[in-house]
Design brief:
The complex is a heterodimer of chains A (203) and B (190).
Chain A: E1 11-15, H1 25-34, E2 47-53, H2 64-67, E3 68-69, E4 72-81, H3 86-104, H4 110-127, E5 131-140, E6 145-148, H5 153-166, E7 171-173, H6 176-183, H7 187-194
Antiparallel strand pairs in A: 1-6, 1-7, 2-4, 3-4, 4-5, 5-6
Helix pairs in contact in A: 3-4
Chain B: H1 14-20, H2 22-38, E1 42-45, E2 49-62, E3 71-76, H3 82-89, E4 93-102, E5 108-114, E6 119-124, H4 136-169, H5 172-187
Antiparallel strand pairs in B: 1-2, 2-3, 2-4, 4-5, 5-6
Classes of the chains: A alpha+beta (203), B alpha+beta (190).
Chain lengths: 203, 190
């Protein structure tokens, strides 16, 4: 679902800073590869956020042919995350503590309990299925505009975090007032900045 | 579309400004809905000419911010909108709506528009020739085609918003436009 096919939600940003250098293939490939998605399938990590190729979400080599389409740059954000419910963790910790008691004949003290908890947590996380989210991103170079094929605050924040790590360029989301400020000039800008809500129903 | 050179030069605290002007998107959607009803779904905008806009099946109205905030969601497959008219009379404004837009070339988009961000969601694209074809080259072609269609849709939305903004910031808003919207609302069933 997204820009390539299916139905789509779109959040727009304006890039508010000039890139530190011209957007050459070398610059883009190195920035994207340096922030590429890292697989956490067989690790106890809870979250991995990074870029994958636009048309191949399993690859992150970032050959320019995979992201440059004329005046467009296209790549996909991949966020893998897993969540371990506390109730599950507590249940397995209780089992492990009981095993410790049987084995040693002693109740585990707080230091031992903490160590057991870490081992159990790491073990369970490795066995917890990952949730994968993919969000396509387009950079319209001429317009200084970014399209994020997603909506909602949580998704926006994930994108802004990765964008900031990768390019470090300030972004401003296009919302009614920022769009309006781009559309009007002179005195009307001040009128817009001072504008107050107007009732529609006057009766 | 505009580039970096036309961005507001003075530093603005984005989040404060956004929250302070939440009403702008809601007034826009309210104006768009009533204008589409008033003008037989046909709106004239520059430079695209006549476009058709109609709201279908779902509208959400919101009374604003704060503890007294009230939200009503109206589902009306026949688009009679009696509940929404009542909401407007209670001072609510449209905060979200499902609408369709058709341009002069007969291309038709469906989308849900959220007033606070003007984020188009659940966008349905016009039917295109390359649909259903397979292959990598076609995949890139389809992608570029959808980008072009998306650009067209955004240009239409921006033109509609600019039309509204010119009215809203001008002297005619209280003298001409608001009375026009109110006259329409008075004629609707209570």
């Amino acid at each position: 679902m997204g820009i390539i096919k299916g139905s789509l939600a779109l959040t727009r940003y304006r890039v508010r800073e000039e890139p530190p250098e011209i957007l050459t293939d070398e610059y883009l490939s190195s920035r994207l590869a340096g922030n590429a998605f890292v697989d956490i399938e067989h690790t106890p990590e809870e979250r991995s956020l990074g870029w994958v190729e636009f048309f191949n979400h399993l690859d992150s080599n970032f050959n320019p042919a995979t992201y440059r389409f004329g005046g467009l740059l296209a790549f996909t954000l991949r966020l893998d995350s897993r969540r371990l419910p506390n109730t599950v963790l507590n249940r397995y910790c209780a089992i492990r503590e009981a095993q410790h008691l049987t084995k040693t004949g002693q109740y585990p003290n707080s230091v031992v309990r903490k160590g057991l908890r870490e081992v159990v947590r790491s073990d369970l996380l490795r066995r917890t299925l990952l949730n994968t989210e993919l969000m396509e991103v387009l950079w319209l170079i001429q317009e200084n505009e970014i399209w994020l094929a997603a909506a909602g605050e949580k998704r926006r924040l994930s994108f802004e975090e990765l964008w900031s790590h990768t390019f470090g360029l300030a972004l401003e989301m296009l919302v009614p007032v920022t769009l309006g400020l781009e559309m009007v000039t002179g005195e009307l800008r001040q009128v817009l900045l001072n504008l107050k809500a107007s009732p529609i129903w006057l009766a | 579309m505009t580039g970096m050179e036309s961005l507001p030069p003075e530093p603005v605290v984005f989040l404060d400004l956004w929250r302070d002007k939440f009403f702008l998107g809601r007034e826009f959607l309210t104006w768009l809905w009533i204008s589409s009803e008033l003008d037989g779904n046909l709106l004239k905008i520059k430079p695209q000419g006549y476009i058709e806009v109609w709201f279908e099946s779902r509208l959400t109205l919101d009374s604003g911010e704060g503890a007294d905030r009230k939200v009503i969601s109206c589902q009306d497959p026949n688009a009679k909108w009696a509940e929404a008219h009542t909401g407007l009379r209670q001072g609510k404004k449209v905060s979200r709506g499902r609408l369709k837009i058709r341009n002069e070339d007969n291309k038709e988009w469906g989308l849900t528009l959220s007033a606070d961000t003007l984020t188009p969601q659940a966008i349905k694209f016009p039917k295109t020739f390359s649909e259903g074809e397979e292959g990598v080259e076609t995949e890139v072609g389809r992608f570029l085609e959808r980008v072009a269609l998306l650009n067209e849709l955004l240009a239409l939305l921006e033109a509609l918003f600019k039309n509204f903004l010119n009215l809203r910031l001008g002297e005619d808003w209280p003298k001409v436009e608001l009375p026009r919207l109110n006259q329409w609302l008075m004629k609707q069933n209570p």
